[in-house]
Write a structure and sequence with these properties.
Radius of gyration: 52 Å
Largest sheet: 6 strands, antiparallel, barrel
CATH superfamily of one domain: Rod shape-determining protein MreC, domain 1
Structural class: alpha+beta
Length: 304
Amino acid sequence: MPLGTLDRSPPPFFKQGASALSKLMVFSSLSVLLMVADGRFHWSQPLRTAVATAIAPVQWAVMQPIGLATYIRQHVTSLESALQREADAQRALAAQAQRGMQVEQLTLENTRLRELLDMRERTSAPAMAAQVLYDTADPYSRRVVIDRGLRHGVQAGSPVIDASGVLGQVTQVYPLLSEVTLLVDRRQAIPVLNARTGVRGVAYGLNQPNSEGMELRYTLSNADINLGDLLTTSGVDGVYPPGIAVARVTRVERRAESTFTRILCEPLAGMSGALHVLVLQPVSHEPRPETPAPSPAPSARRHP
């Protein structure tokens, strides 16, 4: 077949229509025309509104996971912040409560110290301030340990009082500490005086473990004693100064078959809550004033 008779055009399957350059020019011109027309006459505004309305649900559905993730993150952050603020508030509240208890404790100690100072001024015997450290571990005795001992001048047998009355007596002295046996101990006794009638007696600690009471023994059944009578130290033993409050009568049992009356008393001193006390010097150890030497009799004058 001669070469001139060959068809050099592409088969219909590969035909592409107009050339790419012509398409570019046509579409570029059309774009410029549309932009100019839209900028001048706003032809595309209704179309934009319709398209925006049509795709608004799609945009909302696409943004939901992002909004949900943002909400969860903010919720978790705010929850952690709230828990942290609550923990800080709890710590601050605990600190304030501790300060409040310390203020109450200091106020109570200040009040007791003022009362103790007033008691010291009313007591003529030499006194030494001391602090109760702890109770002894013996369940069958009522003793406390104070922070004064031999080095501070404490003597065995010295009376110990608080702001309300007699607390006990020093029974054991160490170099830096001393043991005080409380009046409610079953082996402790103290001479007392009924402030209303002036009748003397002896009060003992009740013969019961961990008891807070006392008993006025050997009182006749016809003795004049009533509920509420105040018992003070009589001073006849040479240990306790006279006139210090000891206890108050709480129970009087007169029995026909007994010669003596059973009298129960409540000590006025704080047997379980004393913190600051005064250690007195025993009356028998107090220095007595010297008796002045008698002045010599005047010699008789001789008259010339």
